[in-house]
Amino acid sequence: MTTPNSGEALDTHAKALKINLDNRFYGTLAEIGAGQEVVRWFFRVGGAAGTIAKSISAYDMQVSDAIYGDTERYVSRPRLQSMLDHEFQLNIDRLSDSRGDTTSFFAFADTVVARSYKGGNECHGWMGVKFQAHPRDEPSQIIVHVRMLDAEASLQQEALGIIGVNLLYGAFFLHHEPERLMESLLDKLTTGRIEIDLIDFKGIEFRYVDNRIMAMKLVQLGLSGAAMFGPDGAVIQPSDTLHKKAVLVERGSFRPVTHVNLDMYNAALAKFSADPSVAGKPVLSLMEITMRNLLAGGQEVDRRDFLARADLLAACGFHVLISDYFEYYRLAAYLAWRTKERIGIVMGAASLIELFDEKYYTALPGGILENFGRLFKNDLKVFVYPLREHQTDEMTTVDNLQVAPELRKLHGYLTERGSFIQLDNYNPDYLHIFSRDVLKRIAAQDESWEAMVPKQVADIIKKRGFFGYSKHRAD
């Protein structure tokens, strides 16, 4: 049997057996729906009496409500949390006096819906573990949201059993290395079978973990194509957040957030909200950063730089999406799968020029035509902010965009059908602002940068010394 430090992942059987043979960990496994494969591993490998105080499957809704309280949705984070809290506390209440000095108690839970016999349903679930790393310790907790991608229910259940064992093994033996724990979740699985689009650490063992970093790592490691967190820094399950909402998204580097970023968004929001299909409906304001942008400086993400951007976007009240969807049509598909409402993308004229560059679509059988077909499949709208050239003061807009001669008719067609909407309600005083110029001024201690960003952004940059800002200037 391999060891955790040997460089080769233990298989599921070995992980379950190692947990069973470790006398420290003792607790409950509670599973609702299709997730009942996890506890089976511990009974199958032997020695389960040393690990499992109780296993329970509250499959009937009335039975589940009687144990864990009423809920609007059974496959949801609130239901999972009530399961974890209830079962963990029962272990403490019932067993603490008799074995609390030598035992680290835990509660594992999942609530999952796999493919039904009719098919067509979303196959996903919530899974978590609440545990003591040491006897009498305060509890720590890990929660994940998974999407099952296998075509057959039996394969989905098999995958859930494996990831459940991986989560328990990670909690018990890798909690001091959260990123290694994350990497281990798909041991003996592939991203073609399971996607993890949320992971949330909390409690005493994870008091130094920033879940925004963990959200970014999900995407960087390929465990998910995208991850999301809110203005308060809390990680969010994207499907729940996007469901039944119109979405307006702006892609950028946000190094730092400038007046132009906000003017672009606000100008687009005014037109987007006026659309009859959007008017009166909730709009999710989303700022997106791609992994390609975050990795622009090398093979590793500069975490301080990433958190600086996240803090500044939070100060402006935005949700943040980290994605691996460099091509806009992939971003559009991701959003359209999660909401049936109108989707809008905000971009500058420079980005629109790149959108017509055929080199980005060589992997598509239909090339640039397939790109635009996918992008505008669900009547998505692209809102375009003008670009003013520094030297000539000439304005680049949708109407005078320079594209290759063979693409002019395509450009004209998409413009006439209303796929591109020129933003004419912009503030001309902001057109001279470029993030790269702001960065140079910050590093050079040129105070003129402060007028180029919102006040709350300037305050945070100065307070925390982001982007090379120094509080100690020469007089």
Report on the biggest sheet. 8 strands, mixed
What kind of assembly state do the chains in view correspond to? single chain
Spatially, the strands of the biggest sheet line up as 8-7-11-10-9-12-13-16
CATH architecture of the largest domain: Alpha-Beta Complex
Class derived from helix and strand content: alpha/beta
What is the percent of helical residues?
25-40%
Contiguous runs where pLDDT drops below 50 for at least 5 residues = 1-6
- The name of the CATH topology of the largest domain is Maf protein
Please state the overall shape, judged from the principal axes of the Cα atoms: globular
Structural overview:
- The chain has 475 residues and is an alpha/beta fold.
- It has two domains: 198 residues, CinA-like (Maf protein, Alpha-Beta Complex), CATH 3.90.950.20; 191 residues, 3-Layer(aba) Sandwich (Rossmann fold), CATH 3.40.50.
- The protein contains 17 helices and 16 strands.
- The chain has an eight-stranded mixed β-sheet with strand order 8-7-11-10-9-12-13-16, with helices on both faces.
- Strand 14 and strand 15 form a beta hairpin.
- The termini are far apart.
- It comes from Chthoniobacter flavus Ellin428.
- InterPro entries: Rossmann-like_a/b/a_fold.
